[in-house]
Amino acid sequence: MSSALTNLLQSLRIVPFGSKAMVASSEKERLKVTDLPEISLEEVAQHDSFDDCWVVIYDRVYDVTHFLRDHPGGDDVIMDHAGRDATIAFHGTGHSRDAVELMRDFLIGELPVKQHIFRTGQNKVLSSGIPE
Ligand code: HEM
């Protein structure tokens, strides 16, 4: 796996399969993450306007309403994904580690496990879908 991708996954507290050391060191974070409120895709879809904008990135839900105007990439690129999954667009842009850390300020919940694309119920990344 490329180091840039590994950094991104670590910042997101995603533990790739087979990384035993990371499982141990991220245990505390993982437990905290499981306390996140569960928010379904159907509920996220209700928040698709400039005044009320939620997006899903790596199976987690972010309320970016008050960040839209400040987003260095512009409000329009986020609004293109308002109320929906923005993971591929977010990842494709190649956001910095600082940007990934900033996301935490807007984290409000996580999708139900049955709607996850990128994580298993144990918060591990599914092996398919993420390029090496
Ligand atoms: C909570 C969600 C997001 C946060 C916290 C965030 C944060 C940032 C930050 C801090 C930058 C400055 C460059 C960097 O540090 O990487 C940036 C740039 C950018 N972001 Fe986001 N972003 C978010 C979501 C998105 C989404 C969903 C898209 C969808 C396409 C997007 C597209 C871009 C683009 C195109 C740039 C400009 C890159 C450039 O000009 O070099 N961002 N973002």
From TrEMBL:
Listed name of the protein: Cytochrome b5
UniProt xrefs under Pfam families: Cyt-b5
Domain Cytochrome b5 heme-binding positions: 36-112
Keyword Heme: yes
Keywords attached to this entry: Heme, Iron, Membrane, Metal-binding, Transmembrane
InterPro entries, sorted: Cyt_B5-like_heme/steroid-bd, Cyt_B5-like_heme/steroid_sf, Cyt_B5_heme-BS, Cytochrome_b5
Annotated SMART domains: Cyt-b5
Superkingdom of origin organism: Eukaryota
Subcellular localization: Membrane
Gene Ontology terms for molecular function: heme binding; metal ion binding
Main location: membrane
Stored PANTHER family: CYTOCHROME B5, GEO08203P1
GO cellular component: membrane
Assigned protein family: Belongs to the cytochrome b5 family.
KW Cell inner membrane (keyword) present: no
